[in-house]
Structures are given as structure tokens and as C-alpha cells.
Here is the input.
Amino acid sequence: MTLWARVALAMVPLAVASVGAAGLSAAYFGGGRQEPWTLLAACVIAVLLALLVARRTARQLSLLLAAEAERQQAAHQALVASEQNAQAIIKTALDAFFQTDLDGVVLEWGPQAEALTGWTRAEAIGVNVVELMVPERMREAHRERRKKMLADELGTSAGVRFEASAMHRDGREFPVEVSATALRRGDTWLLNNFMRDISQRRLAEEQLIQAQKIEAVGQLTGGIAHEFNNMLTVITGTIDILADGVKGNPQLAVITKMISEAADRGARLTASLLAFARKQPLQPTEIDVNVLIEEVANLLSLTFGRHINVVTRLAADAWPALVDRAQLNSALVDLAINARDAMEGDGTLTFATRNVVFGVRDAMSVGVEVAGDYVVIEVCDTGPGIPPAIRDKIFDPFFSTKEVGKGTGLGLSMVFGFVKQSGGSIEIDGEEGRGAIFRIYLPKADASALPVTEADERPVIGGHETILCVEDDLEVRQFVTIQLESLGYKTIVAASAAEALAIAERGTKFDLLFTDIVMPGNMNGRQLAERLMAERPSLRVLFTSGYAYGAMHAQGRAGQGIPMLSKPYRKAELARMLRRCLDPAVDHVGDPIPLPYSVLPDVERFLRKNQT
Here is the structure.
């Protein structure tokens, strides 16, 4: 019941009493035959009754009015609280809020909208949102879509959600996701909009797609390269034997050399494929990038000639990087050769270094694995630059802008794979027609990184020790057995990790485990080494593989410091690596230190620091 209905109901008794009093008064003053005192008494009673009823009615009306006033006050307070709550939600929401009428004129503009677009609330209120932040080339299409949306969705509780391009106040475009809901106010409608920047999400999606594409190609590439390296191991190894046998025949010696060079080219091609697939065996150490770049720059200055000016701008405080020295050297040379070809033999090639510290968001935007400290290497040229249309394809395998027959299209993909496998990233910058910049991010070396080691100059000699050789490929196993026996070693062979364990469990003695890393079955070479080293802590181990990325990166403490001989390899490399593993380490006074390889790097570092 409304307030006025209650007031009317309360007035009924007063009205009845008033009518009764009026009737009695009329009868008295009408000159009837009633006794005067009787009529007078009746009038007095009627008037008193009317006054009592009026007093009661007034009290009821007062209570009703007070209750209505209290209700209205509570309703007002609830409305104010609701408005304050809505404003608090808008101000603290992660998404930007703005409100428009049906024509798109801005009625409300939240703080996040100010931060996201650069337009202040005072500047945005009263301006059409299309003119405010829709790129000019897309405005007409946006208006048409808005009309269709209003016609189809107006009044629906679910609203609509869509993605679009928004324009910042400074002219920069960025992708956004907008959710819009219609709200009825009186006889018109308002649109409440929440908007968020999805640049990071788009970038993450693109990186995921690229990673999945690279991984798919890498799986195929890695498998092919593994088998090809096994074949090359046999070919390159037997070439040395053939070369020794035909020394007295010049014609056959030339043919042998041609075979050797072709095998080397095949090995380099396989290495390039593995580098792209991020499945090559790396040996990261602490590298002074400035020193390496200076060496590369000096070499290029002599090679490129006087028409290419090679310049270095190296930060004096550049951090050391944790990276494979040989692979970084090769990557820089590949980038320099690409720059030379782009400049058509005339221009300036610049190498620059600096340090950078990435937070989580920045690390994601440049594509490095984790936030932290990185060394930046920039390779800049003054060529025509890279058109935007092909920037997303520049690191794809076999993609090339050169003529057919000129280049393999693996140079940049190899650089990309090596940098990503090293825990870094690479990006392209620069404007078309104004040169290109390749920017490499490499992780800073920490205190535990291994320093650069000198090249192994050990003589090619054999030995008399017993070696357990574990190799699943029959041809490679036969070849290795022949090579080991020709060097004087006693050889025990196994075709799998299970066979090797069975040999060890029989108590067979051997001095070194020479095992392939990638093998079929439930146990790979790394796991086999860990199992045997747990039982024989001083056991010497030498790994070999042409495709060891997954197994090596899962390596535990027991495998750290173990040398690896990459396939394909020659007899001289095998001989030197075996002696490196078998010859005992000595301290600064020449005493032997028969320690397992799991702690050998720490000992070597300690001895270098304490030598006098």
C-alpha cells in the first residue's frame, strides 16, 4: 500500500466524526422541536469525538510520514553506496571502463582508460569514441559494425565481446579486446564498455605457434640428422684409413681427399640442421663477448675488403655471456656475411654490445626463457633493410631471398636455433630502406660458469686400457671397435644400455665407458652413466652423439663435466678425447687426483685459482 493510500484510510474516521458533528449542529440550529440542552450536548459530544479522532489520525499520519522519510533516506543511502561501489569497481578494475550513448559519445571515462589510451577524462567526455581511438582507415567499418551490433544485441543481458585495433593518443596502434553491455536508462540506452590491451597475449600466441612449428620441424630434422651423423661417422672414420693406404698413389689420394671434403660438407650441413632444430650438442662456457667480437671484426676487415667498413661500439662494462664460443663465432660470421650480401659489397657493418636486465613482461616480449641479466649483441648494416612482409619468415629453414642455387637458406635459421638453445633470443629491427639490425640476447654467465679452455693439443696416441663401448648402430659399433683396437685399447661392446649393465653386473672390469647418448629402450646413455657411476664413483666416461639435446638437458649432477665427442668424428679426435678422459688430473705439484668427472670442473677451477 502506498503512502497516500494509507493517509486516505487514516482520514476516514475523522471525516465520519466531522459529518456527524455537522449533522447534529444542523439539527440544532434548524429549529426542530428537540430540547435545546439535548441537542447542545449531542453537538458537544460529536465535536469532542471528532477532535479525538483527529488527534489519533494526526498521530498515525505523523508515524506514516516518519516511516516514509526513513525509508526514502535508506533508499538514498543505498543508492549512494551502490554508486560508490560501482565507482570503486571501475577504478580498481584491471580493464579500462568507458560509457557511451548509442551514438558513441563518451559519457564516462575511467582511470584505466586514461592510462591505456593517453586521453584524460576531461578530454574524452563528450567526444565520439570512434574519433577518439579508432584508426582513421578503420572508422567507417567500425561504424557499420557498431550499427549492426546495436541492432542485433541491444538489450541482451549477455552483451557482446570483440577484438579490434585501438589507437593511443600518440598515434600508436595496439590490439584490444572489448566487452560491451547495453543498459536501459529511462527511455534510452547506454553502453558500458570494458577494454583490455591484448598485445602480450597476441605475442604469446605468435610465439607459441612459432615454437610449435619449429618443434615439429626440429623433431624431423633431429631424427634425420642423428641417422645421417651415424653414417658420416663411419665414412669420415674410414677415410683416414683409406688415406693411409693410398699415400703412394697420387690419383687415389686425390679421390680420397674429395671424399673427405664431401663428408665434411655433409657434416656441416647436418650441424646447421641441428642448430636450427636446437638439438646440437653445445659446450657453453664463460665468454668475453667484446674480445670475441674484436677477433671477428678483425677477420672480417681483412676478408670483406676496403668497401665494407667494419665498426665496433662495445660497452666497456659488457658482462660475460654463457654460450658456446665456436657457435657464437659462427653465428656472428653468418650475420656479417648476410649483411655484406645485403649491402652489395659497399657500406658499414657495426657490432655493438650492452647489458640489459629484463623483468617478466620484457623477457616475454623479446622471447628469452627467463627474466634476468642478458648481454646484447647488435649487428647493424646500412643495406636496404628487411621488408615487413618477410620478417616473420626470415628465420624459417630454407627460406632465402637469394637466387636459386645461391645459399642453402639455413644461415639465419641456424643462428636462430643456436641462440634459442643457449637460453637467449634474437630479433630484427630497422626500417625498410634504412638498414637492418639483428639483436642477439645471451644470458649473463654466473659465477659457476666454466671458463674458456685451451684447444686440446694432445698428441694422437693410443693406450692399453679396457673400454666398454655402447652403441646401438651396428655399422658405427663395428667401426668404433676397429678404431679402438687400432689404437691399442681392449674393447668390450654392447648394443644397448641393458647389455652394458649386464656386463657390469657380471663383474667385468673396464676403465672407461664410451657410450652413445641417444639409444632405444628405457635407458639412454646419460642414464646408463649415472647408474654405473653410482656403483663406481671413479669411473671415467666419454659421451658421443650427433643429436643429444633432450638427453643432455635432462642431465643430473652425476653427468656434469663429462666430455662429449660429437658425431661425426675422426680417429685423431677420438684418440685425443680418450686420453683426455683417461689421463689422470694432477694438482699443482704433479700428484694424481683420481676423481670422478662429476666434481672435476670444480677441482680444476680451484687449482687454477690457487696455482703460484
About this structure: The first strand starts at residue 96 and ends at 101.
